[in-house]
Amino acid sequence: MNFxxxxxxxxxxxxxxSTSILGRAMMKGLISFEAINIRDYSKDDKHHKVDDYTYxxxxxxxxxxxxxxxxxLAIAExxxxxxxxxDNIDKTNVAxxxxxxxxxxxxxxxxxxxxxxxxxxxxxxxxxxxDLVFLCGHYEGVDERVLEEIVTDYVSIGDYVLTGGELPxxxxxxxxxxxxxxxxxxxxxxxxESFNNNLLEYPQYSRPEEWMGKKVPxxxxxxxxxxxxxxxxxxxxxxxxxxxxxxxxxxxxxxxxKPEKKKRRRRKSNPEINAEDCTNIE
Length: 282
Ligand code: ADE
Description:
Layout: E1 2-7, H1 10-17, H2 20-27, E2 32-37, E3 51-53, E4 61-63, H3 65-83, H4 94-100, E5 107-117, H5 120-126, E6 131-136, H6 144-150, E7 153-156, H7 166-177, H8 187-192, E8 210-211, E9 214-215, H9 225-243, H10 245-254, E10 258-259, E11 278-279
Parallel strand pairs: 1-2, 1-6, 5-6, 5-7
Antiparallel strand pairs: 3-4, 8-9, 10-11
Helix pairs in contact: 1-7, 3-6, 5-7, 9-10
């Protein structure tokens, strides 16, 4: 998977993304990053200006359309050249050749506090793409016309405002990259952790068995894998209900809790079902 990041601060991206797990994945050829300086596409040879005042007045400068658009065109061309390198194409088949040269527009994410708030499901969706282009804004924003022309997705990382789009882009790239097959050593870790099924991850413990008078829950030492799985699911449910009631409601709507099978005396008044009384394990 290839990430193309349009930015005024390429060094910010290059330093951060080439370390740790993502750096290793890059060395393995599973992902690639390319930070492209929008300033290189300025038509102003002297100062490489990319911003100007806003029509209608108001404080601050706006990123202009032309350098961003030209930067985008260069990336789209590169992507298209890669897709149409023709390695697997039977050149005797005219229809196939014609097809291959049709340019597929890349998905372009504009990182902005005005976008849809990023989540794990969106990360999984983006991870299916071969190429993703990010546009990082600065100053007071970007001329609307170029956004209309190139952007396919408006995405925010939360309801707060940062000084620029580089950090949000890196947050998203990290979350997306780790879902690319082979990036994580252990495929399982991508499957069981927080946000799969809208549940947060259960508590985990390592050695020693007792620390500061706190003991590891006995069930985790029992060797009974079925019981351990049941305990973990229960803990995930309890934790999600406490910490993220919004996610718990979503999970509940997809996994209605079934009252436990063991015989309980029914309370007379309409008993409210809660996570601790129920299970969805058959
Ligand atoms: N740019 C500035 N703030 C942002 C945010 N919260 N999410 C995405 N992009 C941003």
